[in-house]
Amino acid sequence: MPPILARIAAPIIALALLTSAASASPRRKAAPPLPPPAVLGDTVRVAITTDAGVITLDLDHLHAPVTTENFVAYVDRKLFDGTTFYRAMRLAWGTQPNGLIQGGTQNVPQRTLKPIAHEATTQTGILHKAGTISMARYAPGTATGDFSILLADMPGLDAHPEASGDTAGYAAFGRVVAGMEVVARIFDAPTSPTLGEGFMKGQMIAAPVRIISARRVPNAGAVP
Description:
Blueprint: E1 4-9, E2 14-18, E3 43-50, E4 53-60, H1 65-76, E5 84-90, E6 99-104, H2 121-124, E7 132-135, E8 146-150, E9 172-178, H3 180-187, E10 204-217
Antiparallel strand pairs: 1-2, 3-4, 3-10, 4-9, 5-6, 5-10, 6-8, 7-8, 7-9
């Protein structure tokens, strides 16, 4: 089971991430150690090419350096190539479409690098708005190679230190600058009525959308 996002409170959106309970097979080769971070500018542009089209992202390295460098490490090592967008979480309230899509390595050992430190929204100032890319996680500091892209504003994913429980929120680190129609296309893909467990049931895409490649591309400027 991949790391997954689930609504845990309403009417305020709050999401919790679950990690895979499956252990790695001893016969599987683990991913090599994380290399030194690439030399990056304030903004890193990445194009994710999928079977549904291309999603172009500007990653905010200036304000979320740890999370951006982690994502770029997956991109530069081609670890996202051949993975999928496998989940569409659709929320019934608010302005539609409301929810997110989720994709990534799904904890496959040979594709997954070590977890990274958590960069909360209170630290980065990057909030969960429509088009934001954010890391999937379980507890803070467990994010690896799974991520979500939002269809609508989700302030419940931001850090809320005034609340109780896990208040750290999720690590937002960039935004879609082209291809939101592709995000919407993936979001609208048919989901399976049987795949998924518990609250996940009905949220797993019946035919996951393949990520053909994820590559750095020239960017036009910094994230505002």
